[in-house]
Amino acid sequence: MGTLYVVGTPIGNLEDMTFRAIRILQTVDTIAAEDTRHTGKLLQHFQIKTPQISYHQHNRQQRLPELLNQLTTGKTIALVTDAGMPSISDPGYELVQAAIEAGILVIPIPGATAGITALSASGLPTDRFVFEGFLPASGQERQQRLEVLAAESRTLIFYESPYRLQQTLQDFATIFSPSRQIVLARELTKLHEQFWRGTIEDAIAYYTDHEPKGEFTLVLAGAPAEIPVLSEAALKAELSQLINQGLSRSQAARQLSHLTNLPRRQLYQMALSLTEIP
Fold first, then answer.
1. List of residues 6+ apart from 274 with CB closer than 8 A
2. pLDDT tier, 278 (very low <50, low <70, confident <90, very high otherwise)
3. Cystine design at 202: which of 7, 130, 198, 212 (Cβ 3.0–4.6 Å)?
4. CA 85 → CA 14, 17, 74, 174, 200, distances in Å?
5. What pTM does this model have?
6. What is the pLDDT of residues 29-83, one digit of tens each?
7. pLDDT tens digits for 87-133?
8. Quick check: 158 and 135 in contact, CB under 8 A?
């Protein structure tokens, strides 16, 4: 059995190419490339002479058996896309899946990825996030996808072309709220790299006056957590329960303040008014 290497390539700046990626591309038998002309320029820059074969979304069904046959007969293949990590919003998933099912060793060679690159410098929460990639272009499927994400509290990452950017921002404003924070990163790692930060509403205004250029990565703040609205009786009941658990009135007020966003002093006065603790 051979080996399938999933090789990350630069998303713009060629200096982001890793030494390991260069070595793998130099030593495999074949490079399966999304666009052989595009990858050819990369190979020429690093003086890599390994032969290429095209593998993209329009020919993957025909190419899959051929590539699997090479792998099962002991050949090594490096899978690359035009930029970034293969199979992340790019061709590759089916080949990786088929290789695993055939018992072929699959080894990732990590590289740059636009989504993580943008997230790391976005200034939005990075501890929990959802990668959505490209949304459906239009229609009911697109609407349904956005509605599912409306209550998502994790940071959201999307890819978008300059031609659909305004429509996507308008859809975000309708589904998510015009005041939601968003970061638009374009031309990442390239000469004209830009991060724009603000609300969805302000982004619509900005890109009405400035023509969108380059590929965009959109990093959108998650939905704000809903703060429960409790009656005075319910608040007193919660305070009583906390005090019964061993907290002082002051501690109970402080903890409930964090949960409800109500002033701690107000809750403390309410706790003092409790004459009977069940």
1. 236, 239, 240, 243, 249
2. very low
3. 198
4. 14, 12, 24, 32, 28
5. 0.79
6. 999 999 999 999 999 999 999 999 999 988 988 999 999 999 999 999 999 999 9
7. 988 889 999 999 999 999 999 999 999 999 999 999 999 999 999 99
8. yes
The DSSP line for 47-88 is T----EEE--TTTHHHHHHHHHHHHHTT-EEEEE-SSBSTTS
Could you tell me the two tokens for 112? 């740059």
Q: 46: which 2 tokens?
A: 């690093």
Residue pair 8/84 in contact (Cβ under 8 Å)? The answer is yes
Residues, the chain, total?
278
Q: What angle do CA 56, 62, 66 make, to 5 degrees?
A: 100
Residue 149 CB neighbours (<10 A): 20
Residues 6+ apart with CB under 8 A from 3: 71, 76, 77, 104, 105, 106, 107
